[in-house]
Structures are given as structure tokens and as C-alpha cells.
Specification:
With about 300 residues, this protein is of the alpha+beta class. Helix content is about 30%, strand content about 25%. The strands form two sheets. Strands 1, 2, 3, 4, 5, 6 and 7 form a seven-stranded mixed sheet that branches. Strands 9-10-8-11-12 form a five-stranded mixed sheet. The longest helix has 17 residues, at about 110-125.
Length: about 300
């Protein structure tokens, strides 16, 4: 199994490295990938459970919880020590410094164990570190989405808790003063794919395209979430930022074609490590930053 925590920090190299070391500190955890973006001010780490329940992994027996849970708790502790939600600025929606922490299963047979690990993680983050934890996705039978919890940001989240509209699944009813809140779930692989648009596309262009192509929109693509952004560190280029929650229902080639009906994608980027199959029939003339495949990373050594 994997864990793919997203932290609301993408500009300080030392902090990004420190969080990575903390996440990979328990025996049995491999750090496969780090993706950072200064405009989103966000870093996404991909962790693998190298022990996979194997007690022969050195040091694994010393930890009562699965390695991925131990790693995520260690990463959250490091975030509390180094980050402050009241000072955060970035284009990506967020409610916490460890903003989202999903346990990812590759095989449907592992869904149950992944859900169990996610619940253990939520309990520890909420009760041990006193971070309000909200479950989403499969742990809520699809009733709660990330966007629903993040609407309005941390300040509005606290108002919604105070009003009784939302209640954390674990932890206190007050946001952590430095860490905010965290979203936890278990899920199959998700593809985070961002397409930059050729001028004269603007923020309004990107937002309009996102509204058209996201699931439920007039041209809605199944299992696609989308927002429009601009990237100040890249001369305010307009970007359609997407999450493809099931690449078997909508692959990246289909997504690019939908965007291209309204504006010209000039480059794209992948956040994290997608399965190779997500790129079936992908257009060869569209450059993609960070294009690596999950299968290749799992087959080789992790990062130090």
C-alpha cells in the first residue's frame, strides 16, 4: 500500500526535506517521490509500505501501528514544529498544514486493510496530536468530499464547526493553532494532472474550462475534479488543475482532449506517481513535467 500526504508548504527547501525525512523515518517506509510547487505552495509525498506486514523488516516489530501510519504521524509532528497555518498563502485550497493524508490501495482486495489503517491514522492524529480529523471519500460512502470540507478555508471551517454544520470524526472541535485540520481517507490511485494554457488564456478561461469538464458540469468527465488557477511564479499562466479519481473511467488523453476543445494546452505536469495505464493514447506532442510511473518507482530503490 501507499500513502500520499499533501502538505501546505512548497517554498522552503529545508522544511520540505525535513518533512520527507520524518515521513520516511519509521522502519519499513520508502519515500518514492516528492513533488513541490511554489504557486500552489504545496508538496506531495509518495510513500510505500516496504514492510507490508513483514515482521522480519528491521525495527518493524517495535512499532504497534503499520509503518505508513507511523510515518504520517511523524510527518504531522514535524509539520506542527515547523509550519503555521496562520501564515500560509498559496493557490491550492487547504484547511491544514498536513492537509490531506490518504492511504492508497492498488488492489481491490486491499481496500479493507487500507480503510482500517486510515481509521487508525485518524484516531492518532486527532487524539494524540489534537488535530481535528475529517474523513472523506470511501470512509464516508462518498457522502463527503475534500471540496466540501475545504470550502471557505480554515477560518470558515471553524465557523462551520462552531455552528454545528460539521463535526470532526476524530480530535477536538477547535482547529489546531499551527496545523489546522486534516482530511483522511482510503482510496485507489488518483491522478493529479495540471494543464497550462497558451496565452491569451486567463484565470477566467481556466475557471470556465474547469467548470465545464469537471464531473457534473455541462461537459462533465466521469471521476474528474477540476479548478482554474493562475501561477504567479510562471508569469501568471492560466492552469486547469485536475484530480482524476478513476483513470479507468477517464484517462489523461480524454482529459486533454476535453480541455483542448476550449483552449490550447502547451504543457502539463503530473503530481506524484501515476500508474502507466493512465497515459494510454496520450498525445505525444504535449510535454509533461515529472512524468514518472508508479511501477518504475516501486521496482527500484526509494529516495534517501
Amino acid at each position: 500500500m501507499l500513502a500520499i500526504p499533501n502538505f501546505s508548504e512548497g517554498r522552503d527547501p529545508h522544511t520540505i526535506a525535513t518533512l520527507g525525512l520524518a515521513l520516511a523515518s519509521p522502519p519499513g517506509v520508502r519515500l518514492l517521490d516528492i513533488h513541490t510547487d511554489p504557486d500552489h505552495n504545496r508538496t506531495v509525498y509518495t510513500l510505500a509500505d516496504a514492510a507490508d506486514g513483514d515482521p522480519t523488516v528491521p525495527g518493524a516489530a517495535a512499532h504497534p501501528d503499520p509503518p505508513l501510519v507511523e510515518g504520517l504521524v511523524a510527518g504531522a509532528r514535524a509539520a506542527i514544529a515547523r509550519l503555521d497555518i496562520t501564515r500560509h498563502e498559496g493557490a491550492h485550497p487547504y484547511v491544514g498544514m498536513l492537509d490531506v493524508a490518504p492511504i492508497v490501495y492498488m488492489d481491490p482486495e486491499d481496500r479493507g486493510p487500507a480503510c482500517a489503517q486510515a481509521l487508525v491514522l485518524g484516531d492518532r492524529l486527532g487524539n494524540e496530536l489534537e488535530i481535528p480529523v475529517f474523513l472523506y471519500g470511501e470512509l464516508t460512502q462518498g457522502r463527503v468530499t475534500r471540496a466540501h470540507i475545504r470550502r471557505g478555508g480554515p477560518d470558515n471551517l471553524q465557523r462551520r464547526i462552531d455552528a454545528g454544520e460539521l463535526t470532526p470524526d476524530f480530535g477536538p472541535r477547535r482547529l489546531h493553532p499551527r496545523a489546522g485540520a486534516v482530511l483522511v481517507s482510503a482510496r485507489p490511485p488518483l491522478i493529479a494532472f495540471n494543464a497550462e494554457l497558451a496565452p491569451p488564456a486567463t484565470l477566467a478561461t481556466a475557471e470556465r474550462i474547469a467548470a465545464l469538464i469537471r464531473e457534473g458540469g455541462p461537459e462533465g468527465l466521469p471521476a474528474v475534479k477540476a479548478i482554474g488557477l493562475t501561477l504567479p511564479h510562471r508569469d501568471d499562466v492560466a492552469q486547469v488543475s485536475t484530480n482524476v479519481e478513476d483513470y479507468r473511467r477517464t484517462n489523461l488523453a480524454t482529459l486533454v482532449a476535453a480541455i483542448a476543445r476550449h483552449a490550447t494546452p502547451v504543457r502539463a505536469e503530473i503530481v506524484g506517481l501515476p500508474p502507466r495505464a493512465a497515459f494510454a493514447d496520450f498525445p505525444e506532442d504535449l510535454p509533461v513535467r515529472n512524468r514518472r510511473y508508479l511501477e518504475d518507482a516501486l521496482g527500484g530503490p526509494g529516495e534517501a
